[in-house]
Structure formats: structure tokens, C-alpha cells
């Protein structure tokens, strides 16, 4: 019967409308909406990647080779298992536009394609002409199509000519869409497409040139991709190939999307935690207004369980409403902002209502609502019938019974566990949960300290004669103070924003401030051995050049470790794909051998290897281990005889793996170089070296830094939006706290006016009180956000942390400003109310 009675009471209570629960619904809906929106975008992108996997990859499967093209036997095997094969070659080069006595040069990612390209999808050109027609060019020159960014940079127009290496091409169209661009990963230069056969005569592909040949396969319907991968590994064993297929067409893009989305979900959970403060405050305020009703019900014989269930049913019904509103908003936001999302992430997406992310968001919302409402609900058991005849202000104070405390802890564990499993980032989730919990406890401690300090300062001599300040301090430290809810809600939102600000500042600083002081001006590739001395003479002869470093460069794939396939030993990044390899008789300049010994001068015995110490420790390598490296289709097995420190932070040359010269004798290779020069010399070097050796590619490190900065800016913007959403939720909580305290402020204002206080003094009292809470929240946000930023910068990004004071000051100012706005918004009505009306109603 108690359940039926509780349901009847709840239904009658809900007939009174949603008065007092607007903040509850807003906080819960915003938190759920943020998580649902992020999850929906991720699901849309995942489904787009799955639907258009063949278009993104350029085929049903791809085989990539480094430094070489497929042999006749390998090509015959590919044609045997497929319906069609498309061959392309991809590398960096310089596009040169002669102008008068000089020339304009631009770095480009050059791709040569055959007549079968593209197997899937279509190339977008402006003007819209067939790709084959664009490649036909003119009777004098073959045609090429180019990214509009590079066209503008070089000042070209359709019909103009430019050089690639030693050959002249005519620009026939702008490349507006490359169907398989999403699988290509990060590139430093805009794209140029030419016919593969037209690369003959350019002089760009020579022994040792850094290029990748790609063979896209159109497979028969229903082909077993796993079986074909095994066949490829057997048929091309020792070829140093990489197999990709539509099961994961763009692994880098997919992983980036998953990680960014998971991180944003964690930011959304922080927002839900902020909203939880508002939810808890709204429930607590509602139940305090119902103290008389609860006491009356107990007087009439209602059981404690019945009363608990009655209000639990009400909260459950309102929770369902809030979750539904949040899910509707979260599903609609990606559709509304679809153009903006597509502009930031130009990959295919299937937009729509996706049940999976919505269910995940609903689960988070349900657990968060239960977590933050159970505690105030449990305190209804402490309301006694005698409250009807006493002051009920203290009714329900104290801790709930232990079953409710245990249930609260169980819900908290369930929420964290769900986030850890569903986000796919268990470690980050656990650390984030610990950080949020620590921030909660810190903010509670700060709120308690704020009240104590305000109470003491209110009695201090220094504030005597300053009525408004003294009243504000007394109110901030007195009974019914809003310090707890204000500092908690605003402080947590500001903490998330402060952490994002510090991380963003350090990311940008590490790239745009620290690196340019030590980074080279140019990273130079594809220097042939017979060009090396002339290149060095030209570079070092320039008065603006301070240092030139060169090294032989090959690329190889680590295929085996101690006879076992490398992929079975570790999933470390050095074992995925090909890596740069060099050789030298002596240790590289600045390199410190940390273990073992470098090979003797003139050593000609079995191959020896020096490996990067940090990466070796991560893989689990030891001195004496054997590595098999595939270089140009040839397996070279060597023993690790030394470890050395490799510094990748200065954008200079750093090789994971170095071998003795005799081990790589006879292998075709080129050389790479770094040039350290002042800015005034950069254009001169590009002109002189590019004019003398057209096949040499010079990559501006400054431009590369700018490109990386653009990508980081997009990431920072996404996380900042998430943090702002959290802060907005905190503002809603502030509005709720201010609204809940309006009645108390009205009575306070009436008393103060009766005692002779002016409206200005009363308003100053309210404003100073709000500023105190905002200052407290801002200061704790600086500390907590700084600690979070230091942890991420130091342990995740592994860079030095520098505290950014500008964003910290903005956080404090923002905290004070937001609380002032919220407090003053609900101060005008108490000021306008006549004291007599208030005091008579109080009698």
C-alpha cells in the first residue's frame, strides 16, 4: 500500500507545476544534451567512415610500398586477386613558377596517378572537366591539377605553366576534391596531381628518393579481407609492404575522432557534475519548502518509507523529463550545426538520430540525477511531526542513514565505471573522476573557509564604519549562506575552463614560442649523394647560415624482434609503418650513448644497431636483442649494441634506429639536411638551392609549425566550447541559487531599510557578497585548473609547463563578474519591495 499511496501523493504534488524545478530541469538537460551531442557527432562520423570506407581508402584494399614500385610478379598477384588495380606514387616536391630573373617556389604534396584512378569516388575539378582531359594538357606540356591554396600562393591561373623538377607542366584545373584525401593523414604541402607516366623526365624519382607507391585494389563482392591480408603477407613476405582495407580505412582519423570525442564526453561529464550541484540544490530547496507538508503527513500517520517514495517518484518523473529534453536537444544540435561541423572535419558523415549515443547520455543523466538527489531525499526521513510546532529551518540536518550513504557511493562507482567503459579511455576517465572529486572536496573546503573567514572579518576592526562591507561579510559567513552552492557550481566550471586555458596556452607556447628559438629554418630531403658536397658548399657559403647538418637517409620497416613478428611483441608507434634509418661511423653530434658501446671505426662485421633509449625502454628492448629491418624489400638482421638519447623536441634530425655503415653499403639512398639560418637568408636559400637542384625538396619548418598550430587551434576550440558549456551550466546553477535566495534577501532588505539603510547600501551589500563568492571560486579555479594543466602538459604531452597568468586573471575576473550578474539580477525586486508589506506578511 505504501507504494500506491506514495504514487498518489506524488501525482497530486506534481499538479502544482514545475515551480522550483526549472533549474533542476535546465541543469540536467544541458548536461545530457552536451554528452548526447558529442556522442551523436562521433557516431555520425564513424558511420560515414564505415559507409564510404572504399572511397576514403581509394579501394577495397591498399598495399603501400616505400622507396620502390611493385615488381612484375607482385603486380601480377594483385591483378589476380582483384577486379582492378590503381597505381599511384606520393611524395613531396617543389612547384616552381619562373618569373623574370627569379622564380616563385611552393612546397607541394605531389601525386602521380594512373588511368584507373580513382577506383571509387570522383575527383572534383574547377572547371568541371574529366581528369583524363585535364592531364592531356597542351601539345607542348602535360597537364596538372593543383589545390586552390597553392594556386593562390604561386599566383597561377588556368593555362599558366610551372615546373616540377626538370619538367614543365600546364595548370589545367583547380583540385577541389580528392576522394581519398581523408586516409592520407597529415601533409605539409597542398596537393598537386599529375599523370604517373608524366613524372618521367622530371628527375624527381631517383635512387633513395623518399616516396611511397600505393596500389589500390577493387575486390570482388564478398571478398574475405582477413584471408586476403594473410595471403598478401605470405605473397609479399620480405617486401616491406603495408596492408590496409575498408575494415579501418582511415585509422589515424578514426582514432583522432574517438579520442577527441571521448575527451569531450569527459568534459561533458564535468558539466553534468556542475549541473548536479544545481540539481541537488533545487531538490534541497524544494524539500525545505515542503517541510510542513512532510511533518503534516507524519502527523496523519504516513510512514517514512511512503514519504520518501512519494518525493522519489516526483524526482524520478522530473528526471525523465529533463533527460528527454536533453536527448532532444543533443540530437538536434548536430543537425543544426551540420555545416559548421562539416567545415571543421571534412570527412563523410551520416547525420541523423543515433540511438547508441543517446542511450549513453541517458545513462549518464540517470546516474548523475540519482547521485545528486538521493542525499537530499534521504534527509526527509529526519523531518519529525514536531517540526509543525517549531522552527523548521534546521529540519533534516545531519547525515542520512548508512544505507543511503552506501547507495550514493555505489551510484558514484557505477557512473565512473560506465564512463570508463563507454569512453574507451579508462585511465583518463579514472584520473578525470579523481580530479573532479578532488575539485569538489577542495571547493567544499574553500566554501567552508570562506564562511569562516567572512564571519571573522565581519567582527574585525578594519571593517568598522564600512556598513555595506561588514553586512556583506556577515551574510556570507552567516546561516543560510549561499557560499556552498555558488563556490561549488561556479568553481568547478571555472576550473575546467582554467585547465583548458592552461593546456591550450602551453600547447601553443611549445610550438610557437619555444621551438622557433632552436628549430632549423629548413628541413631538406632527397639530396643525392653526388649533390651533397655542392649542397653543403652552397648552404654554408651563405652569410646568413649558422649551421648545416646532413645525414644519409633510408626508410625501413621493423618486421621482427628476436625472430618474432614485431606486431606480436609490441604495439608501439615505432613498429607501425616505416621509420627513418641512418648510418654513421661515429655517434651523431650531441647524442649520448646511455648503454652499450658504439661500433669501432671501420667495423665490417655483422650488422649492429643503435636504438633510441626511451623508445627501446617502452618496447622492452635490451642489449643483445636482434631486430630485422626491411629496407627496399631486403631483410637486414642486426644486434642492438647500444642505446642513445634522441631529442625530437628541437625539430632537428633524430633517428630512432642507426646502423653501422657496412650494414647498409650498396643500398640506394639519399641524404637529408637541416639548415639553421636567419629569416633574411631563407628566401635566398630557397632560390639558390632550388634553382641549382630541382629534385631537392626544402620544407620550411616555420610553415610546418604554422600548420600544426592550425590543427591545435581546432582542437583547443573544441575543448574550449566544451568548457564554456560547463561554465554555462554553472551560471544556470548560480541563477537558481540566486532565485532560491530571493525571498531571504527580500526580508533582509526590508529589515535593513527599516533600520535606516539606503538602497545603495543594501545593493552594495548584495554586490559585495556576490563578489566574495566569485573571488573565492576564481581563486580555487586558478589553483585547481593550473594543477590539471600541469598534469596534462607534463605527463600526457611530455612538455614543460609554464603558468599562463593572463588566462588566470581572466578566470578570476570572470568569476567575480558572473556572480555579480547573477546576484544583482535578483536584487532589484527585494530593493523595490516596501518593508511594511514584507514585515506584515512575516507576522
Automatic annotation (TrEMBL):
<protein>
    <submittedName>
        <fullName>FtsX-like permease family protein</fullName>
    </submittedName>
</protein>
<feature type="transmembrane region" description="Helical">
    <location>
        <begin position="263"/>
        <end position="287"/>
    </location>
</feature>
<feature type="transmembrane region" description="Helical">
    <location>
        <begin position="357"/>
        <end position="378"/>
    </location>
</feature>
<feature type="transmembrane region" description="Helical">
    <location>
        <begin position="775"/>
        <end position="796"/>
    </location>
</feature>
<feature type="domain" description="ABC3 transporter permease C-terminal">
    <location>
        <begin position="267"/>
        <end position="379"/>
    </location>
</feature>
<dbReference type="InterPro" id="IPR038766">
    <property type="entry name" value="Membrane_comp_ABC_pdt"/>
</dbReference>
<feature type="transmembrane region" description="Helical">
    <location>
        <begin position="428"/>
        <end position="449"/>
    </location>
</feature>
<feature type="domain" description="ABC3 transporter permease C-terminal">
    <location>
        <begin position="724"/>
        <end position="831"/>
    </location>
</feature>
<dbReference type="Pfam" id="PF02687">
    <property type="entry name" value="FtsX"/>
</dbReference>
<keyword id="KW-0812">Transmembrane</keyword>
<feature type="transmembrane region" description="Helical">
    <location>
        <begin position="808"/>
        <end position="828"/>
    </location>
</feature>
<keyword id="KW-0472">Membrane</keyword>
<dbReference type="GO" id="GO:0005886">
    <property type="term" value="C:plasma membrane"/>
</dbReference>
<keyword id="KW-1133">Transmembrane helix</keyword>
<feature type="transmembrane region" description="Helical">
    <location>
        <begin position="711"/>
        <end position="738"/>
    </location>
</feature>
<feature type="transmembrane region" description="Helical">
    <location>
        <begin position="308"/>
        <end position="337"/>
    </location>
</feature>
<dbReference type="InterPro" id="IPR003838">
    <property type="entry name" value="ABC3_permease_C"/>
</dbReference>
<keyword id="KW-1003">Cell membrane</keyword>
<feature type="transmembrane region" description="Helical">
    <location>
        <begin position="399"/>
        <end position="422"/>
    </location>
</feature>
<feature type="transmembrane region" description="Helical">
    <location>
        <begin position="21"/>
        <end position="41"/>
    </location>
</feature>
Amino acid at each position: 500500500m505504501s507504494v500506491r499511496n506514495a504514487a498518489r501523493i506524488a501525482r497530486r504534488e506534481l499538479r502544482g507545476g514545475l515551480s522550483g524545478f526549472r533549474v533542476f530541469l535546465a541543469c540536467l538537460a544541458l548536461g545530457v544534451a552536451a554528452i548526447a551531442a558529442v556522442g551523436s557527432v562521433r557516431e555520425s562520423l564513424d558511420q560515414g567512415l564505415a559507409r564510404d570506407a572504399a572511397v576514403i581508402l581509394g579501394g577495397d584494399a591498399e598495399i603501400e610500398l616505400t622507396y620502390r614500385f611493385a615488381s612484375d610478379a607482385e603486380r601480377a598477384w594483385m591483378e589476380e586477386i582483384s577486379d582492378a588495380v590503381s597505381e599511384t606514387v606520393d611524395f613531396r616536391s617543389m612547384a616552381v613558377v619562373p618569373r623574370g630573373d627569379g622564380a616563385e617556389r611552393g612546397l607541394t604534396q605531389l601525386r602521380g596517378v594512373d588511368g584507373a584512378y580513382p577506383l571509387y569516388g570522383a575527383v572534383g575539378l574547377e572547371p568541371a572537366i574529366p581528369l583524363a582531359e585535364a592531364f592531356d594538357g597542351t601539345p607542348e606540356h602535360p597537364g596538372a591539377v593543383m589545390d586552390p591554396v597553392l594556386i593562390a600562393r604561386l599566383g597561377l591561373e588556368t593555362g599558366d605553366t610551372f615546373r616540377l623538377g626538370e619538367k614543365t607542366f600546364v595548370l589545367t584545373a583547380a583540385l577541389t576534391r580528392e576522394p581519398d584525401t581523408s586516409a592520407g593523414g597529415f601533409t605539409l604541402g597542398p596537393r598537386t596531381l599529375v599523370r604517373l607516366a608524366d613524372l618521367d623526365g622530371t628527375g624527381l624519382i631517383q635512387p633513395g628518393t623518399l616516396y611511397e607507391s600505393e596500389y589500390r585494389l577493387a575486390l570482388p563482392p564478398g571478398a574475405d579481407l582477413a584471408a586476403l591480408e594473410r595471403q598478401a603477407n605470405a605473397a609479399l613476405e620480405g617486401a616491406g609492404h603495408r596492408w590496409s582495407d575498408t575494415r579501418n580505412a582511415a585509422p589515424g582519423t578514426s582514432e583522432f575522432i574517438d579520442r577527441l570525442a571521448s575527451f569531450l564526453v569527459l568534459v561533458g561529464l564535468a558539466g553534468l557534475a556542475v549541473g548536479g550541484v544545481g540539481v541537488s540544490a533545487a531538490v534541497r530547496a524544494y524539500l525545505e519548502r515542503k517541510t510542513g507538508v512532510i511533518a503534516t503527513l507524519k502527523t496523519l500517520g504516513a510512514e517514512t518509507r511512503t514519504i520518501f517514495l512519494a518525493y522519489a517518484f516526483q524526482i524520478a518523473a522530473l528526471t525523465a523529463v529533463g533527460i528527454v529534453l536533453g536527448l532532444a536537444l543533443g540530437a538536434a544540435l548536430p543537425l543544426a550545426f551540420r555545416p559548421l561541423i562539416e567545415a571543421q572535419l571534412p570527412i563523410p558523415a551520416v547525420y541523423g538520430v543515433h540511438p547508441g549515443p543517446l542511450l549513453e547520455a541517458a545513462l549518464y543523466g540517470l546516474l548523475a540525477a540519482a547521485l545528486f538527489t538521493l542525499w537530499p531525499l534521504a534527509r526527509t526521513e529526519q523531518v519529525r511531526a514536531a517540526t509543525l510546532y517549531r522552527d523548521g529551518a534546521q529540519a533534516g540536518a545531519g547525515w542520512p542513514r548508512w544505507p543511503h550513504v552506501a547507495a550514493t557511493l555505489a551510484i558514484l562507482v557505477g557512473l565512473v565505471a560506465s564512463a570508463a567503459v563507454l569512453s574507451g579511455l579508462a585511465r583518463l576517465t579514472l584520473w578525470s573522476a579523481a580530479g573532479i572529486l578532488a575539485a569538489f572536496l577542495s571547493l567544499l573546503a574553500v566554501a567552508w573557509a570562506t564562511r569562516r573567514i567572512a564571519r571573522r572579518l565581519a567582527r574585525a576592526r578594519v571593517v568598522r564604519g564600512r556598513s555595506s562591507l561588514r553586512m556583506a561579510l556577515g551574510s556570507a559567513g552567516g546561516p543560510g549562506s549561499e557560499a556552498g552552492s555558488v563556490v561549488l557550481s561556479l568553481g568547478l566550471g571555472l576550473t575546467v575552463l582554467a585547465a583548458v586555458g592552461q593546456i591550450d596556452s602551453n600547447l601553443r607556447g611549445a610550438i610557437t614560442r619555444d621551438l622557433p628559438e632552436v628549430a632549423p629554418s629548413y628541413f631538406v630531403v632527397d639530396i643525392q649523394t653526388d649533390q651533397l658536397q655542392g649542397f653543403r658548399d652552397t648552404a654554408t657559403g651563405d652569410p646568413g647560415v649558422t649551421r648545416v647538418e646532413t645525414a644519409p637517409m633510408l626508410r625501413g620497416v621493423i618486421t621482427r624482434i628476436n625472430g618474432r613478428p614485431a606486431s606480436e611483441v609490441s604495439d608501439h608507434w615505432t613498429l607501425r609503418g616505416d621509420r627513418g634509418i641512418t648510418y654513421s661511423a661515429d655517434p651523431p653530434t650531441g647524442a649520448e650513448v646511455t648503454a652499450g658501446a658504439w661500433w669501432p671505426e671501420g667495423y665490417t662485421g655483422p650488422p649492429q644497431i643503435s636504438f633510441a633509449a626511451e623508445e627501446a625502454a617502452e618496447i622492452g628492448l635490451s642489449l643483445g636483442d636482434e631486430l630485422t629491418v626491411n629496407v627496399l624489400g631486403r631483410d637486414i638482421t642486426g644486434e642492438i649494441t647500444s642505446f642513445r638519447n634522441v631529442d625530437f623536441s628541437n625539430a632537428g634530425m633524430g633517428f630512432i634506429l642507426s646502423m653501422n655503415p657496412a650494414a647498409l653499403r650498396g643500398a640506394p639512398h639519399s641524404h637529408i639536411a637541416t639548415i639553421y639560418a636567419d629569416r633574411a637568408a631563407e628566401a635566398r636559400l630557397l632560390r639558390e638551392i632550388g634553382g641549382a637542384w630541382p629534385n631537392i625538396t626544402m620544407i620550411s619548418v616555420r610553415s610546418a609549425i604554422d600548420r600544426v598550430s592550425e590543427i591545435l587551434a581546432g582542437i583547443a576550440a573544441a575543448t574550449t566550447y566544451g568548457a564554456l558549456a560547463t561554465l554555462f551550466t554553472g551560471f544556470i546553477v548560480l541563477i537558481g541559487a540566486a532565485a532560491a535566495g530571493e525571498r531571504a534577501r527580500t526580508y533582509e532588505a526590508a529589515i535593513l531599510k527599516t533600520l535606516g539603510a539606503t538602497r545603495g547600501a543594501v545593493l552594495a551589500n548584495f554586490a559585495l557578497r556576490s563578489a566574495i563568492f566569485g573571488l573565492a571560486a576564481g581563486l580555487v579555479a586558478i589553483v585547481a585548473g593550473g594543477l590539471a594543466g600541469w598534469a596534462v602538459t607534463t605527463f600526457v604531452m611530455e612538455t614543460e609547463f609554464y603558468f599562463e597568468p593572463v588566462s588566470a586573471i581572466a578566470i578570476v575576473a570572470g568569476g567575480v563578474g558572473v556572480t555579480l550578474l547573477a546576484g544583482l539580477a535578483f536584487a532589484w525586486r527585494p530593493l523595490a519591495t516596501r518593508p511594511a508589506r514584507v514585515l506584515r506578511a512575516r507576522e
